[in-house]
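[stage:ingest] chain + small molecule (beta-D-galactopyranose)
[stage:ingest] validated
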Amino acid sequence: MTVARRDLLLGSAVVGLAGGIAPVRAFAAKGSPVDGTGALPMPAPTNVLPAALPVQDAARVLMDRGWLFHEGDIEPAPLDSHNATYISVKAGNARGAAAVDYDDSDWQAVELPHDWASFQPFVKTANVAQGYRPRGIGWYRRSFRLDPALQGRRIELEFGGVATFATIWVNGSVVAHNFSGYNAIRIDLTPFARFGDEPNIVAVRVDAEAMEGWWYEGAGLYRHVWLADYAPVSIATDGVHCDPRKADDGWHIPITATLTSIAPVDSAVTVEARLLDPQGKVVAQGQVPASVRSLDEASATLDLRVTDPMLWSIEQPTLYTVQVRLLREGQVADERRVAVGFRTIRFDAAQGFFLNDKPVKLKGVCLHQDHAGVGTAIPDALIGWRLERLKAMGCNAVRSSHNAPTPELLDWCDRLGLVVMDENRQFNPAPEYRAQLEWLVRRDRNHPCVILWSVFNEEPMQGTPSGVEMVKRMAHWVRALDDSRPVTAAMNGAFFDPVNVAQVVDVTGFNYYQGDYDRYHRLNPTKPMTSSEDTSAFMTRGAFESDPARHIASSYDDEAASWGATHRAAWKAIADRPFVAGGFVWTGFDYHGEPTPYEWPTIASFFGIMDLCGFPKTAFDIHRAAWVDDRPVVAIAPHWSWPGREGKPVKVMVLSNAERVVLRLNGKTMGEAAVDRLMGNEWTVPYAPGRIEAIAYRGGQEVARAAHETVGVPVALRLTPARTVMAGDTEDAQAITIDAVDAKGRHVPTANLMTRFTIEGGAIIGVGNGDPNSHEPEKGNQRSLFNGLAQMIVRPDTGRGRITIRATADGLKPATLKLDRLGVAPRAQVPVVAGDMDVRDWRRSPLMVDKPSPDLAPATSDNNGWAFVRAGTPTPAEGAGWRVYRTVVTPKRAVAARGGEIRFASVGGLASLWVDGQMVADKRDPKPGPMTATLLSGVNKRIIALIVAGMGNIESGLLGRVTVAPR
Ligand code: GAL
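[stage:predict] done
[stage:export] tokens:
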């Protein structure tokens, strides 16, 4: 079998950026997954890996592996002396779990992305909006080494997003307090870094009691973490702005590169930019000199011009690459590769949105970052898969509600041809929140997919002078960073108030209030407007009868929130009005939390066009019929297995984009009608087992057909992947569908039985079934089918091989699925170091004429007589005399249990080593050399004293690392 990543298939020179347009898997009409005659309501598997996401900055290395996690808070021990208090507030001396020396040996090893809330049970007393999952506080730690060759380089650590409030320490110094779960946290590690064998320790305390939303937000390090090292003069992170513009004389790419320097002297550099076409060919280039002062920033600007580039569009999302290189003394010191697209956007008050001067109705959905089984910790590949599902439905727009998306989502949207309303979380112009907003714009402003900045969602101050002042400022800051995209605010009222924020944004965003569209347009005929949110309808996937007592909403599209509308009515209101640019359905997928209209025991929402797993509800076909223009669509609801309902009326909906549709039951025509593309066609049919079929015609020709058959009892399980291949690169993931089939191999839409799984060659990182009322755990190796379907999320082991998954259920024939695990090189990860404990901090006595006692110690509160010294800092040659180096070691678990060794890599001078007053080693050669002593098992603190005789003319003392290692 020939398999490859899609970009490699394209043979591109620019891996990952080269217009690797993922073919969107359509729901074909005939013999297709939706025809109900055996296959699933899901696309057929492919045998191609998705293309790797673009690498913008090759200096960044992932730090997703090797984390240790502790659930719950850890209070440091009380400070029991003045001296301990004095020391505790000094740089590098964080206490408790933030301390460099903290014993984390019993913490749990985890990999990122990690959402600890997704492991929690559902608890009635926990917050309803967050899906009844306890959140709490958690700690993470990670150690890593930095090569001594990196000294002098700029080292940066980035957390893509931490839910929710985070405090971060590096090597015992607090380096960040962050008060949002949705912005990246960037830390200049340069001054804190240690090089060589001594590990760097990152500790993160995450306070997920804090909430920023009324939906499930997950908890912990749920996005990637990166470590990067840059030349002393380098390009700042998000420091390239290169968004193409169309001018009268053709296309330009105005480029601004922000440069930053930690070089000891002012530096002269050259910034070079090249535009690469999708095949990697250079089509434009330029360069400009720049100078950067030491410890300062500077910017370099240049303009590339290109005639007649291929445009980026929804149908053909062609990506070019801007390569920006920083040259210093003729050498490439830094480089970024930014995917760009040539497209124009425009919102018109009368005609809506234009992409490349063509009107495009925004057929959008709102998304939270959340999926069955994994919560907010969605692997990149699964994010892509979710977006492909939307695209297959004819969706062309997503709104990242109500926060900055994970950056990979935008990479996928660039590639798939989905436009994005990029939304800010905190409505607040105070400096900290201004920084979050500006970060969002800087990070995302090169993405061709981004077409709108939304400064807020539904803020009660939207109709007040104060709210207007806030939006004015926020919009101004956005425009200062990006003058090419309009600013909106997703309002839920105040549209007609004398003072309201719509007056200071470019596009009015309507959340609901669809009945006010016409009046607003009449009163504001020059103001562009879009629905920023609509619908909020309820459906339980696969259920066709509402049952409020059991918290079930029918999938006939007949239930909606009082402030919303059914899928069909909401879209009709938008589709009928050219002046409404488009809409964003609340929501594309169900999500945990906000379990409207029901509460406990319901734990997830009913709003999705698809359920939590991405299994389509009837809403999927409703939107497919309304939104897909380029291929025929026909679908039928409900399924056709209703034992006991023989002769009784069943409502049948046919959704199609054709001209006419005929409905047949067991070959007999039950109805025929002109297609109502937006509202669907409905018939009431007396139920008879057999085959119900809808045949769609255009110009008198059959163009599509869909059918459901009455199926028998389940006899076997089936496992269906999205792809038959996975990358053995440590990161790939995919959703695999479990269903039950009857004796003829047909999907049984009513099966609700428990299924159990085993896997070899991979791991199951989550399970789900789309039932908003289920309290089954989302981790583990079993899950009930819900209305016929369940899902597991699989992550492959590393390297080439096989993944074998087996599913069993009582009384059914088991299913076995074999997937090929391809030998795809993993992205580099910062190596994990198994750390011995460093004994860093010592007190050093003054120089003494006589040999001191090993018991000699600084007086209480002496912070001046005895020096504070770090292991590895030699005491200068200073004449003959004695000194005591003293510290206290608290053995970590392994040493306490088994005993260990204290190892001095290098001691200068004659020396004797004492542990708790006993001499344990003696060094009789003054030349630098190692010393080692045994530490007996036991939890007690050990007083370590090293008595050193300086020999006059050589450096002495703790010349190297001191470590404690278990036996
Ligand atoms: C909107 C809100 C969404 C969600 C939705 C439910 O008001 O913006 O976040 O809560 O209602 O209908």
